[in-house]
Amino acid sequence: MNNQLDLPDYLLPDFDTHRLLFINGSYVEQWPTIHYASDTIVIGSLRQAIKQIPKQVFNWFHQTDKNNNKPFSKLNTALLNDGSIIHINNQITLDKPVEIIYINTSESIRSNTTDNNAIMSQTRNIISLGSDAKMTLVERFIGTDQSQYFHNNLSVILLGKGASLKHYRIQEESSEAFHLSNINISQQQSSRYHHCNITLGGTWSKTDINVNFTDEKAECLLNGLYVVGDQQLSDLHLDVRHSVPSCTSREQFKGILYGKGRAVFDGHILVEKQAQHSDAQLSNHNLMLTRDAEVDTKPQLEIYADDVKCRHGTTVGQIDPQQLFYMRSRGLSETTAYKLLCLGFAGEIIDSIEEEKLSEHIYKRLVQTFNEHVFQQRLFNGN
Predict the structure, then answer these.
(1) What is the pLDDT of the chain when averaged over all its residues?
(2) What is the pLDDT of residues 118-153, one digit of tens each?
(3) Residues 141 and 172 sit within 8 Å (Cβ to Cβ)
(4) pLDDT at residue 379, as a whole number
(5) Could you give the CA distance from residue 45 to residue 43 in angstroms, rounded to a whole number?
(6) Three-state DSSP class for 318?
(7) What strands, in cross-sheet order, belong to the sheet with 18-23?
(8) CB-based contacts of 64: which residues, under 8 Å, 6+ apart?
(9) In terms of Cα–Cα distance, which of 77, 72, 51 is closest to 62?
């Protein structure tokens, strides 16, 4: 293996997980933590699962592929490299998180030469939780240095009655990378889904999150943070469909923009006529550190039922001068005050991540981004 790609460097210290590793879209048998236990627990490579448990895999494909009609979803199906398959049977709580690490690199892995050709990775995940099953899933998208590549990731999540999934996605792609994610969630009665999406890297990043409630009393919580700077575009689309009564959804996304960064937020909640007693809240808040940054935000509520609780809102603003003055009057420098206010703005989203090692890592990455790309170059207002 290429000495330039040191895999332990990409692991979080003391973060104990069932780990799956993919390099340039292909599964790497690096850690023997994968389980195949009949119908009870399946965690592993999608391609390997097709060979070992083909009937189960094809059944899951049949349940999920009918909803993947978008062009890039079809491209994912046609050019699939590999992906993950995770199935937790009824009433099982997984002992520790499942961590999926995607590393994309233009560096040669099997030799000491360098491959400068751009890479296209096509990965797919199928996650299925039975009734009352519980687990935590962590996805980390990582790119090395200035590697150029396109990563097209498709995930389908099926939650059975009373199932609970905590799903954390950390996108730290290369500054030259193009990242596309399409996430489709289907929730049965009383299921709970907590999603937190952190976007830090990539020159172009687009994430589509689609939620469909198929039975009553299901709950969905979608959180996210995007940090966008020069030569970066972050594009986020939500489509949450309340098609049955008595379901709850919460969507809260925040953005920090600097330099000439650009972000797009398009959040859509549909409450159909039969979906009485729905409870939906959607918010998007953006902090602009420079006048050249741009955000296009469009939160939408489409309501056809009468007895519902729904609200939405959005804000776009700069650092509050009074807060800045207060912190500077306490002896803090302008840069330190800006940094602390930015971290405080992002903290509400990051603190929703219950895995301590993961939230610590995100805070460190934010500080690194601020030090290297914002405050060192003084890319904030007032300078």
Answers:
(1) 88
(2) 789 999 999 999 999 999 999 999 998 778 899 999
(3) yes
(4) 59
(5) 7
(6) coil
(7) 26-28, 18-23, 98-104, 134-143, 164-172, 192-199, 219-228, 248-257, 279-288, 309-317
(8) 126, 156, 158, 184
(9) 77
